[in-house]
Amino acid sequence: MISSNDFRTGTSIELDGQVWRVVEFLHVKPGKGSAFVRTKLKAVQSGNVVEKTFRAGETVPQAVLEKSTLQHTYM
Question: Tell me: the pLDDT tens digits for 13-60?
């Protein structure tokens, strides 16, 4: 689990059964009310972009992604 306060560009999270990557984030602390984090998320599989707002300190599951280098051989 990762807190919304720890979001950084490139962080991967699981939301609604999909893996999302944080493209942009902005921590907003209004003069009145509680702080929140406004994010722009991109789906890893489909490429859809969505804007979502999280309460400050809200926790979401962090997705673990592995990068590997592949070499394709054509015959």
Answer: 999 889 999 999 999 999 888 999 999 999 999 999 999 999 999 999
Beta strands in the chain (DSSP E): 2-3, 12-15, 18-28, 36-43, 49-55, 59-60
Domain membership of residue 35 as a residue range: 2-60
Q: Provide the residue type at 72 as one letter.
A: H
Q: Model's pTM, two decimal places?
A: 0.80
Residue 23 lies in a domain: yes
Count of the separate structural domains present in the chain: 1
Largest Cα span, the chain: 65
How does 26-49 read in b/e, with b if 16+ C-beta sit within 10 Å? eeeeeeeeeebbebbbeeeeeeee
Q: DSSP character for 33?
A: S
